[in-house]
Design brief:
It contains two helices and three strands. The chain has 124 residues and is an alpha+beta fold. A three-stranded antiparallel sheet has the order 1-2-3, with helices on one face. It binds zinc ion. Zinc ion (ZN) binds next to loops. It comes from Candidatus Scalindua rubra. InterPro entries: DUF6788.
Amino acid sequence: MSIKLIEKNKEKISEIEKERKRLIKFLVSDCKLVEGSLRKSLIRCGRQGCHCEKEPIHPITRISRWVNGKLKNKIVRVADREWVKSLSDNYKKNKKALSDLVKLNEKEREIIKTVIKLKTLKYE
Ligand SMILES: [Zn+2]
């Protein structure tokens, strides 16, 4: 049994626990989210005589998300663009934090398995 190796792994776990605490604190915080990705594009307004008759020039922002296997799009009102962008960014950050947490759990599991191995004696 290597005390030194076990201590080293305990340090690693305590680092992981700090990171996990940070991720969970963020994940259960009260920040609001909007599901979907934002995409900017140019459209024609349809008004006669507008420059956009030649090519689309009017900028719009769409938010799209998957609903029952279908991609649903919705145009974001100009007045809503800023807050929808910020809430959509929050959504991405939450998804990322959750996936980081899953990876962290897996990493910790491997370290604990190593510690268990190190602690294990053979009764012979
Ligand atoms: Zn136009």
